[in-house]
Amino acid sequence: MLTVVRLVAAWCVVTAQVAFSAEAPKPPVAAIASAYPLASEAGFEVLAAGGNAFDAAVAVSAALCVVEPRGSGLGGGGFYLLHRASDGHEVFVDAREVAPAAATRDMFLGPDGTPIAGRSTDTALAAGIPGEAAAFAHLAAKYGRLPLKRSMQPAIKLAREGFPVYPRLAEDINRKKPKFERSPDARRIFLPKGEAPPVGYILKQTELARSLTVVAENGAEGFYHGAFADKLIAGIRQLDGIWSREDLANYKLIEREPLRGTYHGARIVTAPPPSSGGIALLDALNILDGYDLAQLDSVTRKHVILESLRRVHRDRAEYLGDPAFVKIPVDRLLSPYYAAGQRASIRLDKATPSDLLPGYIGDTSSGVSTTHFAILDREGNRVAASITLNAWFGTGLVIPGTGILLNNEMDDFAVKPGEPNMYRLVGAEANSVAPGKRPLSSMTPTFVESDKGIAILGSPGGSFIPSMILLGTLNWLEGADATGIVLAPRIHHQYQPDAVFAEPAGLSAEERAALEHRGHKIRDWPPTIGNMQIITWDYGSQKVVAASDPRGVGKGMTR
Ligand code: DON
User: Fold this and answer.
1) How far apart are CA 109 and CA 117, in angstroms?
2) Nearest CA to 382 among 333, 317, 453, 324?
3) What is the CB neighbour count within 10 angstroms for residue 329?
4) Distance 23 CA to ligand 1 centre (A)
5) pTM over 0.90
6) Annotated active-site residue in 121, 370, 536, 558
7) Ligand 1 atom having least distance to the Cα of 460
8) What are the residues facing 387 on neighbouring strands?
């Protein structure tokens, strides 16, 4: 039997109580925003069949595995933040990958103690035990209204009958070509005739359809036990991986209490560890609470946002990891007194060099994928889900005979304390590799609610994610709807490297010069940050807006 653990964390931190009635009004329409229109359609199909937002979450996730294989998959994991309208129940479903039992602290290092290039990203050793199948079964059984088989039907059809390759997918496959070429199954599926398929080519994933069917018919049991588990292990062995039958049988999905906080009268419900995002978001808001952002000039506003991000990412690097393995000082990190101390070290006229913050770990010297979707049904149930294989198409290796792409989530561990990972994040002992441990994540599915309405927020983007959620939260509180939030330019700081990352429109020439004058180093990279999928619902006007980031090719729809 697959075990589901329910953890009620002691760190349900509420800085001030803001009460909202469980009897929230019902939205006039249902809304779905996801990274590809066919996945949003799969969700609406299931809603039309009598399903609720949680059934739709299964449908959208399963469809994304098929139509956006770069972002997530049955071979990966993710987080689902749920809100049930009937009783206000909120839960964080942690289906994060787990390090296999044979994992060791130094497994990604060579004899000289330095990381072996590519080992934690491109090999079967990079893969944690996947959680997606457990998530599908759990969402359907505990929160859904339809059988799992019904909710997974659209995805199975898309995999079996195929769908037309779209330009972004053709580009992505082409970019990953050298990685796919190492895996006979990946080559056969993604490189027909040895090349990335042309736009319009009908991409069929017959083996993936069969694997999805195993889950649809037999739930988590079908994936983690019996003949299918044998097949996964045999396939992993061929790829020189280290998973065992016991690793699959022991996989545990965990229901966690979300982190909660308040900011300017809004209630924020967000991701607890093993995500770093919720702590980063709430601590950054606590720091910013000491400023009147609306009164600051635009440079100083950006400066204090960046300085708060620098500080929360220093703490990420130092303290955060899987809470089953490390004691995280959550109460302290989320205390307004702690934030006041962090704020006190911010000078308005000068950037603080990251090296001068306490707790510096070491020298630091990428690729992006993952996917996020948001759902609101007509009953008011909500889902914010971030699911991932980590890098684009994970390792690029397909488990033989299954059509399942293997994640490279092990790279989210600090493979060596102080060594940057693919997102150039550094980490300490708290996030070192250990058997059965969950790698620290930045994924931050979040609800922000005030008496004016709600926002369902989230994005892929690796280390950039908490910054996007922070900016999105501030934008929403200042009156932006989902469209305004996805359009807004983005800036970011993650402590190390000690630099401001800005989209081209993120800083005007004047702001840039002024920030440089205060001591910020600015990097014009990456050209775009994230792929937010957002729903906002304004209680006054009853306007529901589902918006998909123009940086991606998704679609927000209401119906
Ligand atoms: O869990 C994490 O933080 C990463 N594996 C997420 C990766 C990601 O968002 C890649 N994005 N564009």
Assistant:
1) 9
2) 453
3) 16
4) 35
5) yes
6) 370
7) 9
8) 78, 371
- What's residue 268's pLDDT? 98
Average pLDDT, the chain: 94
- What residue owns the CA closest to ligand 1's atom 6? 462
Ligand 1: centre distance to CA 422 (Å): 10
What crossing angle do the helices spanning 206-224 and 226-238 adopt, rounded to 10°? 120
Instruction: Identify the pLDDT of residue 369.
Output: 77
Helix H or strand E segment including 501 = strand 500-502
Tell how far the Cα of 464 is from the centroid of ligand 1, in angstroms.
9
Separation of alpha carbons 151 and 31, rounded Å: 17
Which class for 294: exposed (0-12), middle (13-18), buried (19 or more C-beta within 10 A)?
A: exposed
Distance, CA of 29 to CA of 299 (rounded, Å): 39
Burial, 237: exposed, middle or buried (Cβ in 10 Å; 0-12, 13-18, 19+)? middle
Residues 140-158: tens digit of each pLDDT: 999 999 999 999 999 999 9
Contact of 65 with 90, CB cutoff 8 Å? no
For residue 392, how far is the Cα from the chain centroid?
Answer: 13
Helix, strand, coil content of the chain in percent (nearest 5) = 40, 20, 45
Residue 17, Cβ neighbours under 10 Å: how many? 8
Q: How far is CA 376 from CA 41, 51, 90, 151, 251, in A?
A: 14, 12, 14, 16, 29
Angle subtended by helix axes 206-224 and 53-67, to nearest 10: 130
Contact residues of ligand 1, CB 6 A cut-off: 368-370, 388, 390, 409, 412, 441-443, 460-462
Pocket probe for ligand 1: among 92, 96, 121, 390, the residue whose CB has the most ligand atoms within 8 Å is 390
Q: How far is the CA of 326 from the centre of ligand 1 (A)?
A: 21
Q: What is the DSSP code string of 235-293? A: HHHHTT----HHHHHT-EEEEEPPEEEEETTEEEEEPPTTBSHHHHHHHHHHHHTTS-G
Is residue 370 flagged as an active site residue? yes
Cα separation, 198 vs 170, in Å, equals 6
What pLDDT was estimated at residue 3? Answer: 55
Please write the tens of the pLDDT for every residue from 126-143.
999 999 999 999 999 999
Whether the pLDDT of residue 549 is over 50: the answer is yes
Provide the token pair at 186: 């990946």
Within a 13 Å sphere around the CA of 302, how many CA atoms are in the beta-carbon half?
22
Model confidence band, residue 25 (pLDDT cutoffs 50, 70, 90): confident
Region 299-303: mean pLDDT is 98
